[in-house]
Amino acid sequence: MVNSTPRMYAAMSQPSQLPNLTRGAATKSPRLMPAAVTVLAVSSVVYYVRRQLLREKNDFDSLFAQKHKLADQLLQEDNKKVLAEVNAGQKNLLNILSS
Fold first, then answer.
1. Residue 52 Cα distances to 26, 39, 57, 66, angstroms
2. What's the pLDDT tens digit per position in 52-77?
3. In angstroms, rounded to a whole number, what is the distance separating the alpha carbons of residues 82 and 86?
4. What is each CA distance from 12 to 1, 16, 21, 22, 28, in whole angstroms?
């Protein structure tokens, strides 16, 4: 019994035993693989959703700016029409007063 323990220890420390240890570690790693795949899938989805939201935000911002630009143009056109009507009214009033 005393002689078998040193032999067993010597057999465990030999390089031929190392591949068996790495094989044991490799068989344990697939347990982690589903978690890693899940993390990768979730992070990919989060990245895609963030990118899509950023695109939609940029589209919304450009449409919002375009809407305000058109509203300003319409307001300027309305102001021009009102100003033209006021000028025409003033001319009519001056004509009435001068006659």
1. 38, 20, 9, 21
2. 999 999 999 999 999 999 999 999 99
3. 6
4. 17, 8, 10, 13, 20
How far is residue 72 CA from its own chain's centroid?
32
Question: What gap in Å lies between CA 9 and CA 1, rounded to an integer?
Answer: 13
* Lookup: tokens for 34: 């589903």
Residues with Cβ < 8 Å from 17, sequence gap 6 or more? 11
Token pair in block for residue 99: 């006659």
Q: Model-level pTM? A: 0.44
pLDDT in tens, the chain (99 residues): 455 555 544 555 555 554 554 555 555 555 667 888 889 999 999 999 999 999 999 999 999 999 999 999 999 999 999 999 999 999 999 989 887
What tokens were used for 14? 């030999």
